[in-house]
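Check out one such.
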Amino acid sequence: MRTGRTARTGQYVALLAYLVFLAFPFLWLISTAFKPPRELGSLHPTWIPRDPTLANFRQAFDEQPLLHAALNSLIAALGAGLVAVLLATPMAYVMARHRTRLARAATGWVIVSQAFPLVLVIIPLFLVLKNLRLINSMPGLIMVYVVWALPFALWMLVGYVRAVPPELEEAAAVDGAGRLRTLVSVTAPLLAPGIVATAMFAFVTAWNEFFFALVLLKTPEKQTLPVILTHFIGAEGVADLGPLAAAAFLATLPSLVVFALIQRRITGGMLTGAVKN
């Protein structure tokens, strides 16, 4: 009994420490965003601003086109999420239902591809987009985001497809439904939680991505929000800390809002849809 309680207490302490570790940067970011310049330069920083101000937010919007950059990020993230799901869903179905050597090789390639560093793939991608005349364009950036998110999206959806009982598809086939009709009418509704989770992953990945956008987008009018945030850092590496924290705080809000809106559907969908015999 004592050993079990000690182990459970240790687990709760470890979980609490992990939550504090995750929350600390975000809470410090919020605190910094509302601090006036004299508190930012204080030798004794505090968690709660003594004289909170919105001047950092006003300065951030005055110095950089944050709204236009946020719109560019939104277009890229929504496009990447939509295209990744449309491509990954039928591909995951084939890989999960037809366990051939080719499917196993594709699954292995999906896992191995996640180990490739960005620097290794950026040059081939740049050359391909240059030949397609898609450098410095939103369609080209969306294409890169889809290519980068597709392996993990496939890996996620394959697990969801395998969790769907094959007996449902066999019953649909007996009723005369073809493969496409079965996928659309039978399998896809049961995959809704997985599809939503995959779309969220692709959206958040594209929204927060920096390296590809920095290399592929040249004109300021087409740059995304993570790239614009670097403009708050001067030529000598000195950051305008207050406006940078304010802009970074605003940049994190869409990801949090998207997750808050759909997390109930994800967890709820996993508990419903049980098969009735």
About this structure: The CA atoms of residues 4 and 261 lie 37 Å apart.
